[in-house]
Amino acid sequence: MKHIFATLAVSLIFCAGSFAQSTQNLPSLSFDHYALYVKDMNVSAEFYMKALGLKEMDCPIKDGRHRWFYLGNGQELHIIQGDNSKIQMEKNMHICLHTTDIKPYMKHLNEVGIPFESWQGKSGESNVRIDGASQIYIVDPDGYWVEINDANTK
């Protein structure tokens, strides 16, 4: 039995080394887009435009179920109308967007009547993460959480 485990351990070490070596020649990756299933595409589109000021872009898929939005820096949000009932929504699974200052977003969200909260769930408040970034959370019409923070400015 000891020989089986020793052989397995050596095989795993060899495979791990081969895997690491094979990834060294890959070109780098950059983030491209988020895609979210939503119950009502128009309600969700209105939310993202109203809450975050996202600008809609031309969507090449002309099936009436897709809308695309600019997030900046070549990144996009795609919303797709469909059944999202099997997706478990919780704060740990979220989209995160950063800005230079979250205070104007907090003011804007208050003005347009969109509630936000701290990580701890305190309504209308932000919190400071261990890395010094301030953050708030909003929830979209489908229950997806969105974090807004100023992490890249610290």
TrEMBL record:
Enumerate the PROSITE patterns for this protein. VOC
Give the species this sequence originates from: Imperialibacter roseus
Q: What is this protein called?
A: VOC family protein
Name the Pfam families on file: Glyoxalase
Q: What keywords sit in the KW lines?
A: Signal
- Superkingdom assignment: Bacteria
Q: Where is the signal peptide?
A: 1-20
Key word Lyase present: no
Domain (VOC) ranges: 30-151
